[in-house]
Amino acid sequence: MTANELFDKATTALSSAQLLLQAGDFDGTCNRAYYAMFDAARAALLIADGNESALAIKTHSGLIAAFSLRLVKTGRVTLALGKSFNKVEDLRLVADYKGDPVEIEQAQWAVNEAKVFVDALRLLSVV
């Protein structure tokens, strides 16, 4: 899979998150917002590493750790983006596994953060 294909997946997931938010499915919103960020992070790592090692990462925690180490700690991506990635993942875990209700404000925040994240990493990839 190429970085462009991953960014396309991220864009599709973001669109899905927005539709789910409008439909009132806040758990689904958080899930899709997180996966938009996940795929954008994979694309950014693929570009940053110049090889396919990002595609070999098998776990969510592994991807988040690699993103932090290779992009946030090196200053290529802001700390704020790294933190939002972690927080949206936390919301996804609540939505998908813990059964606690996700509030509309949290879902709206997740979609907004995902949009900022995907847009910022897309810009990073063309620099």
Automatic annotation (TrEMBL):
<protein>
    <submittedName>
        <fullName>Uncharacterized protein (UPF0332 family)</fullName>
    </submittedName>
</protein>
<comment type="similarity">
    <text>Belongs to the UPF0332 family.</text>
</comment>
<dbReference type="Pfam" id="PF05168">
    <property type="entry name" value="HEPN"/>
</dbReference>
<dbReference type="InterPro" id="IPR007842">
    <property type="entry name" value="HEPN_dom"/>
</dbReference>
<feature type="domain" description="HEPN">
    <location>
        <begin position="4"/>
        <end position="122"/>
    </location>
</feature>
<dbReference type="InterPro" id="IPR052226">
    <property type="entry name" value="UPF0332_toxin"/>
</dbReference>
